[in-house]
Structure formats: structure tokens, C-alpha cells
Amino acid sequence: MQANHTCAVRPSRHSTSTHSTSATGYNMLTDHEKELIAKIWDKMIPVASDIGAECLLRMMTTFPGTKTYFAHLDIRPRSPHLRSHGKKIVLAIAECSKDISSMMVTLAPLQTLHAYKLRIDPCNFKLLCHCILVTLAAHMGDEFDPVAHAAMDKYLSAFAAVLAEKYR
Amino acid sequence: MVQWTDFERKTIQSIFEKMDYDDVGPAALSRCLVVYPWTQRYFGNFGNLYNAAAIQGNPMVAAHGKTVLRGLDRAVKNMDDIKATYAELSVLHSEKLRVDPDNFRLLADCLTIVVAARMGADFTADVQGAFQKFLAVVVSSLGRQYH
């Protein structure tokens, strides 16, 4: 299964950065980018239900095919299901951002869950990642500048790729 | 032919009416070049694209960003026949510029994020849905004449 193309190898543009290698072989994030990512997600933890619900709602509105995975939940805009499910997702992403190099270990249980129980087609991870970026932009405005956007896109792509690793 | 609801038409018109093309165009293109650096392959003669700061300060990038947004305006004004509106531009991008059509989607995603950052809470899920549907039609039309 191909990893998301946004994780493709490219030469670094940061002359004084250090790259940390993770077990996945992804060393695309500089230390500065990792700090930036951790800081952003840290701010989302107290509002995880709101943010998570918004990401899911954006995804299901823009990409209606994704609704097929939620037949068992009430996915109307202010539903408690949407908030609690959204909260789970945001907290998992936030937790992982505190130690990105250990992503493979931290995500092992979620890998198993997605591969054997949920079996969400991994093309949908990209769609949710995009809606997470849109949510962050809507909340952060100019602060979500191109550098933050690039770092976050790389992180979320790596997260999605790791999540799909046990599929086959 | 694409069917647009009243909400979708009103939303698209409203977003573009309120938009500063000279701000959003450069912001979207420079963001695309930063977030997806391989897109720089089409801008070899644009000078310094070495890092994010250089890209965001590059006057040729800014000028081209404005050109792209003004091109998008044609679709806004012809929502019922975007395919025909872009037939020539599609040929241009395919045969002369040789742009991989996947790049249209990347730029569209960056434009969505720039608009979200400008509109904040007003960029609701429904507004996003309409905006992305519009951009999907644009992207598809630009890729239509490739063969």
C-alpha cells in the first residue's frame, strides 16, 4: 500500500536544522517543526470535542462518501456522538504529537483497531487530514502560516500512513 | 451539466465578491509552493524560491498568484458552463505548460485553507462543502483536455 504522496522524499530546505529519524524511517520533520506541531495540538486538547466534531462535520459535508462509516452514530451537527468521537481522534493526534519519534509504538493499538476492526479505506485518511487542516486554519487564521501548514500536513500524512500499516 | 443549489450559488458568489484577489491569489500560490515544494518545478525562471520567506516575498510568485485568481473569476461568472469556459486554458496547461493535473487539486486545497484562514468561523462546514464542490468542477474542467 502506498504511503500518502505528500510524504515523498525531498531535499531539506532548512540549512541549520536537525532531522530526527523515527522508526518508520520518516525523518521529514525538523526539531522546530515538531515543536510547532506539539504546541498547536497542545492548545487543542482543552477544546478537543469542539475541534474534533468540527473536523468530522467538515469531512462528511465536503466528502459525503465518508458518511458511510458512521451509520451507527448520530452525525448531526451538535450531536454528542460526533463530539465524543471527534474528541477521541483529536486526543490521539495530540498525544502522538508530544513524541513524534515514537509514533510507531504509540499508534500500535490504533493500527490494529483500524486494520482488523474498523477497516476504513485509507484514502479517507487524506480527506480527514485535509479537513483537520481547514479547521486549524479557520481557528488560527494568519498564525496557520505556510510553514505551520507544511509541518502539520507532513505530520498528519505520516500519522495516516502509520495507521494504515497493518492493513496488509 | 453541474447542478448547483441556490445555497451553493449564493455562497460562491458571496465568497468571491468579498475576496481580495490581490491578497488571496499570492497567498494561495506561495502556500502551494511551500507546502508542496515539487510544484516549484514549473517556476524555474521565477528566481529565488529557496525557502518559505523567499517564496512569500517573491514578486513573480505574487504576480502569478493574481493571474491565477483572475482566471478563477471566469468560472465564478460562468458557473453553469465551467467546462467550456476553461477548454482553452486546459489545452494551454496540457500542451504548452505541461502541468500535471494533480497540481490543480493541490492548489485548490491551498486556496481552501487560505480562504478558511481569512473567513474563520464564517467558513462553516456547509460553506466549505459548496466551495470545494466549485473547486472540484474547476479542477476537473482544467484537466478535461488532457490526452
From TrEMBL, chain A:
One Gene Ontology cellular component annotation held by this UniProt entry: haptoglobin-hemoglobin complex
UniProt keyword annotations, A-Z: Heme, Iron, Metal-binding, Oxygen transport, Transport
Domain of life: Eukaryota
Biological processes, Gene Ontology terms: hydrogen peroxide catabolic process
Stored PROSITE patterns: GLOBIN
Pfam family, one: Globin
Molecular function via GO: haptoglobin binding; heme binding; metal ion binding; organic acid binding; oxygen binding; oxygen carrier activity; peroxidase activity
Region spans: Disordered: 1-24
Compositional bias segments (type: Low complexity): 14-24
Domain Globin: 28-168
Gene3D superfamilies: Globins
Annotated family: Belongs to the globin family.
Name by which UniProt lists this protein: Hemoglobin alpha embryonic-4
Gene name tied to this protein: hbae4
From TrEMBL, chain B:
One GO MF term: oxygen carrier activity
Keyword Cell membrane: no
Coiled-coil ranges from the UniProt annotation: none
Gene3D superfamilies: Globins
Location of the Globin domain: 3-147
Pfam (any one): Globin
Superkingdom assignment: Eukaryota
One biological process term in Gene Ontology: hydrogen peroxide catabolic process
Keyword DNA-binding attached: no
InterPro entries listed in its UniProt record: Globin (IPR000971), Globin-like_sf (IPR009050), Globin/Proto (IPR012292), Hemoglobin_b (IPR002337), Hemoglobin_oxygen_transport (IPR050056)
Keywords for this protein: Heme, Iron, Metal-binding, Oxygen transport, Transport
A single Gene Ontology CC term: blood microparticle
Classification via PANTHER family: HEMOGLOBIN FAMILY MEMBER, HEMOGLOBIN SUBUNIT EPSILON
Family: Belongs to the globin family.
Protein's recorded name: Globin domain-containing protein
Native organism taxonomy: Eukaryota, Metazoa, Chordata, Craniata, Vertebrata
